[in-house]
Amino acid sequence: MYNIAIDGPAGAGKSTIAKIVAKELGYIYVDTGAMYRTMALACYRAGIKSDQKEEVIEKCKSVDVSLGYENGTQKVYLNGEDVSIEIRQEVIGNMTSAIAVYGPVREILVKMQQELAAKNNVVMDGRDIGTAVLPNADLKIYLTASSRTRAERRYKELVEKGQKCNIDDIEKDIIDRDYRDMHREVSPLVQAEDAVLVESSDMTIEQVVEAITKLVK
Ligand code: C5P
């Protein structure tokens, strides 16, 4: 199997890029952030706060998170219910990085991710793919961009969806989330030693895709 790991901070464009690269290569795209978001949604719906460690862990152990594909698009299911859209809310994104610090929560999802990669050619994106999930991946990319650039991209997306938002608040949320992801004890976000760094602040999506597909070839 050929496994490509793409890691990097929030809003660096990992999923956009990974989706296109997977399509071009005929590989499966695995969005691991969606899996963590689904666990956070389960806790949120149950009224559990992210600092209630034992309750969070118990809830995550009791739910079923699964992935499916519809016309090449990844769907994520919580106990069989398609929650692919609901998990995208900002409130869930922020809660996710707070529950992703717990080792037992990560263990459940890492096992699923490793099983997927053992059976399929994958482009998998997340925070710990090159370092913890697939340390032997054939290609590792660390995709990043300045926090301002990432906030501007997110702002544009939200405005296009007709949502009211403030770019400084978005940048602050991004910086807070990166801090939590980079400073947690278990599998913090860090560039793997053998990952190729792609700094995309001044690159278009096409340029990043081209750079990665060239590395695969
Ligand atoms: O990539 P996305 O923004 O959807 O990820 C949401 C959160 O899930 C991240 O901020 C991070 O805390 C967590 N995550 C993680 N490990 C991964 C993927 C996501 O801890 N492999």
TrEMBL record:
Annotated keywords: ATP-binding, Cytoplasm, Kinase, Nucleotide-binding, Transferase
Stated name of the protein: Cytidylate kinase
Binding site for ATP: 8-16
Lineage of producing organism: Bacteria, Bacillati, Bacillota, Clostridia, Eubacteriales
Gene Ontology CC annotations of this record: cytosol
Organism: Eubacterium ventriosum
Gene3D superfamilies: P-loop containing nucleotide triphosphate hydrolases
Family: Belongs to the cytidylate kinase family. Type 1 subfamily.
An annotated Gene Ontology molecular function: dCMP kinase activity
GO biological process: nucleobase-containing small molecule interconversion; pyrimidine nucleotide metabolic process
The reaction(s) this protein catalyses: CMP + ATP = CDP + ADP; dCMP + ATP = dCDP + ADP
Annotated gene: cmk
Enzyme class: transferase
Enzyme Commission number: 2.7.4.25
